[in-house]
Amino acid sequence: MIDLTTQYLGLELNNPLIASSSPLSKKADTVKKMEDAGISAVVMYSLFEEQITHESLALNYFLERGTHSFAEAATFFPDLDHYNVGPEEYLSLIQKIKSSVSIPVIGSLNGISNAGWVRYARNIEQAGADALELNMYHIPTDVDLAGRDLEKDYIDLVKEIRKQVRIPLAVKISPFFTSIPYMAGKFVQSGANGLVMFNRFFQPDFDIDTLDVVPTLQLSTSNDLRLPLRWTAILYGRIKADLAITGGVHTVEDVIKSIMAGASSVMLASEILEKGTRRITELNSQLLDWFEKNEYQSVRQMRGSMSQQNVSDPAAFERGNYMKALTSFDNRILV
Amino acid sequence: MPREKVTLDANEAVADIAYKLSEVIAIFPITPSSTMGEWADQWAGAKLPNLWGTVPSVVEMQSEGGAAGAVHGALQAGALSTTFTASQGLLLMIPNMFKIAGELTATVFHVSARALATHALSIYGDHSDVMAARSTGFAMLTSRSVQEAHDMALIAHAATLEARVPFVHFFDGFRTSAEVNKIERLTNDDIRAMVEEKFVTEHRERALSPDHPVLRGTAQNPDVYFQGRETVNPFYAATPAIVQKYMDKFAKIAGRSYQVMEYFGAKDADRVVVAMCSGAETAEETAKFLMNKGEKVGVLTVRLYRPFSVEHFLKVLPATVKKIAVLDRTKEPGATGEPLFQDVVAAIAEGITNGTAPFKTAPVIIGGRYGLSSKEFTPGMAKAVFDELKKDTPKGHFTVGINDDLTHSSLEYDADLDIESPKTVRCVFFGLGADGTVGANKNSIKIIGEETDNNAQGYFYYDSKKSGSVTISHLRFGPEPIRAPYLIRKANFVACHQYSFLERFDMTRYALPGAVFLLNSIYGPEEVWDKLPQEVQKDIIAKKLKFYTIDANEVAQKTGMGGRVNTIMQTCFFAISGVLPRDLAIAEIKKSIKKTYGKRGEAVVKQNFDAVDAALDHLHEIKYPEKVTSKLTRRPSVSDAAPKFVKDVLGQMIIFEGDELPVSAMPVDGTFPTGTSQWEKRNIALEIPVWDPGTCIQCGKCSFVCPHAVIRQKVYDPALLKNAPATFKSVDAKFKEMPGTKFTIQVSPEDCTGCGLCVEACPSKNKADPSLKAINMAEQPPIREQENVNWDFFLSLPEVDRTAFQPTTVKNSQLLQPLFEFSGACGGCGETPYIKLVSQLFGDRMVVANATGCTSIYGGNLPTTPWSQNKDGRGPAWSNSLFEDNAEFGLGMRLTIDKQTEFAQELLKKFAGQIGDSLVSEILNADQSTDAGIKAQRDRVDALKKKLADNKDILARQLVSIADVLVKKSVWIMGGDGWAYDIGYGGLDHVLASGRNVNVLVLDTEVYSNTGGQASKSTPRAAVAKFAARGKGLPKKDLGMIAMAYGYVYVARVAMGSNDAQTLKAFLEADAYNGPSLIIAYSHCINHGIDMRRGLDQQKAAVNSGMWPLYRYNPALVDEGKNPLLIDSKDPTIPVSEYAYKETRYRMLLQSDEARAEMLMKEVTNDAAKRWDLYKSMAAIEYKAKNPES
Question: Which Pfam families does this entry report, sorted A to Z (chain A) (predicted)?
Answer without folding.
Answer: DHO_dh
